[in-house]
Amino acid sequence: QVQLVESGGGLVQAGGSLRLSCAASAGTFSSYSMGWFRQAPEKEREFVAAIRRGDDNTFYLDSVKGRFTNSRDNDENTLYLQMNSLEHEDTAVYYCADNKEYCIGLGCYTQKGTYDYWGQGTQVAVSS
Length: 128
Known about the structure:
Layout: E1 4-7, E2 10-13, E3 18-24, E4 33-39, E5 46-51, E6 58-60, E7 68-73, E8 78-83, E9 92-99, H1 106-109, E10 122-127
Parallel strand pairs: 2-10
Antiparallel strand pairs: 1-3, 3-8, 4-5, 4-9, 5-6, 7-8, 9-10
């Protein structure tokens, strides 16, 4: 069983930056694809970004492309989400999750059902 713990959330002004981290329990972290999702109040949990196992190819929600960067450090068993030029609409609880799939395209990674374990989430609030 994989345990995931997010951190790095907080309150920031529009235009600011935050870096989220997702620490995974020791194990075969490098063998998993990893994803970030977010859930705003009264909204469905939505895909934000994913990084594919093996080649670290990244995939993004259109609205965060060019602003967010997803990366991983396999030696530290840690996933990162660098968020720049934050907008009020980015306000949500952010979750990381692991995925055993090797998806050719974005579609597979956007589906919550393809993920196995989830962290508890970290709150991001962006003031306008």
